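Quick question, first post here. What does this chain look like in 3D?
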Amino acid sequence: WTVLPMSLLRFWTWEHFSSGVMANRPAVLMQLVASAYAVAEKAGTIVQKVLQSGELGIVEKSGANDLQTLADRLVQKSICASLSKSFPKVTIIGEEELPAEAVEEDLIENGQSSLILQKSCPDQYASLKEEELVVWVDPLDGTKEYTEGLLDHVTVLIGIAYGGTAIAGVINQPFYNYQMGAGASLGRTLWGVLGLGAFGFQLQEVPDGKRIITTTRSHSNKLVIDAVQAMEPHDVIRVGGAGNKIIQLVEGKASAYVFASPGCKKWDTCAPEAILHAVGGKLTDMHGNAYTYDANVKHMNSAGVLAALRNHEYYLSRVPQAVLQALPSN
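> Answer (accepted):
Ran it through. Tokens below.
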């Protein structure tokens, strides 16, 4: 036996303990996703409570198709304040332009999803630092539908980007199952990370050879209609919310999401794109070019959105030349 001096023993023990803690500490990306999951769940509860109160606090931002409600405002404050508190070096960009003000303590969520923390971070993202990550927040995707009672269209979106690429996303559906009655479990949260997969739903595909297009419900125009018809669809679904449309793709309700118009913003597509890409799908502009999500990029997706779980190339090949000419690529 070798007897070590107490000072050396203390040093050896602390060094090994601290290195063990560092080795077992989840990667920053997984911590951020785990926090975003918990924050999104809280956001879903806020959205439900505002609706139950009957006081939606609706204001028009730029017209009747561009609304903001109390739920939009409270959820953005909750998400941004909660994530900023836990990850002060992460850049967070939210849809709503809100005044700088103190955030009520009951809007802050400090929790994290233990299930997400237990999953291994993909190697390519394991050493990312907070300051390298950008979070895009849509506090209430499908606000117009929310005000009209089309609750299954509504989602809360938190997307995470690195190097301009959407690498992780969290989508909360506050009213999932709302039509099933009082006994049903209300709401759910989907999430995904590139290289790891996507969770919280059952991945399904539209049967081979069937073309079902999902597109905008309230922002249609001639370009959108022409692009949809050029896909030779067997059926067309018109619904609200980019998050809702991507969920339709991954759950086999639609085979492509076609929106040949400006209108969608980066906070609409970052989280849905990450989840779609995590299961092998593809989201681009109408020219087939990827959108980028770095902090300084313009917010508008000016060349539209074309997304599919499978056969993206087919849908891209069908886009009319007149549509491409009308939508200059970024």
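Residues 212-326 form a domain with the D-Maltodextrin-Binding Protein; domain 2 fold (CATH 3.40.190.80).
Residues 18 and 24 are 10 Å apart (CA to CA).
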